[in-house]
Amino acid sequence: MSNGDANRRGGFYHHRRRRHHPRPEVEYPLCPICQKPVRELASAIAHRETQEPTHFDCILRILREENSLSENEKICYLGNGSFGVVQFRNQPGSPAHFFVRKRIQYEKTDPMPDWRKQSWRAAPPH
Q1: Model pTM score
Q2: CB-based contact 64:75 (threshold 8 Å)
Q3: Cα separation of 15 and 8, whole Å?
């Protein structure tokens, strides 16, 4: 390597120092089920009693415990704060491969929780 190449080892702007900007401390709300911070408000669901943001997986775990499921059933998110006990069918010739055996309206959609309104405002446009 020639002497000129040694000076370019760090790239064209190697002489500039990177500035590290400290990230602001963000306080995340605690999940009422597991007591851990809810960092992803976009995927959080309002807890049915406290209306606080709750991990999606924590709610799934609670619903699995509350509903007895057979081996061909699962808890699935149906949308708009609603879950369902979905039964899967493996019957040939059947037009539907699954059906919702039970619908569970978990999240109250009216009024919308304040934390959800704030997370929608903070979301970047698509």
Answers
A1: 0.68
A2: yes
A3: 10
**Residue 66, both tokens:** 């509350």
Position of tokens 């059933």? 73
Give 96: exposed, middle or buried? Use CB within 10 Å, 0-12, 13-18, 19+: exposed
Q: In this structure, what token pair is assigned to residue 10?
A: 């760090």
Determine the Cα–Cα distance for residues 37 and 108; give it in Å rounded to an integer: 22
Q: With beta carbons less than 8 A apart as the criterion, state whether 101 and 86 touch.
A: yes
Q: Which helix (H) or strand (E) holds 61?
A: helix 56-66
List, in sequence order, every residue forming a beta bridge with 45; answer none if it has no partner: 54
Instruction: Judge whether residue 42 has pLDDT over 50.
Output: yes
